[in-house]
Amino acid sequence: ALGCEHAPALDCKGAGNGKPALICAAGSSLEDALPHIKRLEKDCLILAVGRSYKLLRRHDIRVDYTFSVEMFDWDAAIFEGLKKEDVGDTILAFAAVCAYETVKAWPGKRVCMWDPETANVLGIKKAWILGGNSVAHHMLNYAVQVLDCEPAILVGVDLAYTKPQTHAAGTFHEWPEPVKQKENEYHQELWVPSNGHDPLHPECHRAQVALPSGKVLGVEVRSSPSYKNFADLFTILIAKHGKEVRNASPNGQRIDGALYLDLAEYN
Predict the structure, then answer these.
(1) Backbone angles phi, psi at 223, to 5 degrees
(2) For all residues of the chain together, what is the average pLDDT?
């Protein structure tokens, strides 16, 4: 984070230089976006949450930055087994609160994302970014505030259960059983709408919203209270940054300030 004699600190400020950034989370729609991410990799910077890193690499997709903000050491499993030759020039961007074990498990280059509070304690005036309550929030902030990318395109940021599953296949790791159980409980919260089905029933993840006249106003998607809060924070951050942000997650929760973008038509 601060650098030392044998490993100077990385300076990533402005590294995006106005290029588009694909911000790849772990929502179910990420599975369908993989061919488009691969097609666009030569023209975009690719940022991926840590739990999606191995999935993208299995599809031979270059990852410029991967991210972790988890405070608990069990999340080191997302990078388990990786070697320096596996990760190449990919940079791990991690929050100051990230568990030491997770940072240590990453064999490549690393850069610390100072939050405003930590930066203030250390006397750092400019090299900090806004935070968030999910790793995807940090990725958006990093893409536009540090890398200077535009537009920032949200991929797999569903914030809803767009398929009868919680996350994209290939983004689950060997976390301890209590952790898996807790995550499952989290996704069993009061979802909207229920449609009288179990939470992950194939027929319950979305429903049309219509007036009594029959005019369809839109589609409601199944989500959770936490995911709804995540969307609200995205809206706040997008307005604060003032840069173009697009949402490429079909059937995901609407994020105000991020118009929908069809990756299949983007070039």
Answers:
(1) -145, -170
(2) 87
Q: How many residues does the chain have?
A: 267
Which one, of 105, 8, 23, lies nearest residue 64 by Cα? Answer: 23
Q: Are 11 and 127 in contact (CB under 8 A)?
A: no
CB 266 within 8 A of CB 40: yes
- What pLDDT score does 176 carry? 80
pLDDT over threshold 80, residue 203:
no
Beta bridge partners of 221: 206
Between the CA atoms of 143, 147, 112 and 27, what dihedral angle is there, to the nearest 10 degrees? Answer: 20
Residues in Cβ contact with 117 at an 8 Å cutoff, skipping those fewer than 6 apart = none
* Residue 39: its H or E element: helix 30-40
pLDDT at res. 163: 79
> Diameter of the chain by CA atoms?
71
Instruction: Characterize 20-39 residue by residue with b for buried, 16 or more Cβ atoms within 10 angstroms of its Cβ, and e for exposed.
Output: bbbbbbbbbbbbbbbebbee
| pLDDT-above-90 percentage for the chain | 56
pTM: 0.87
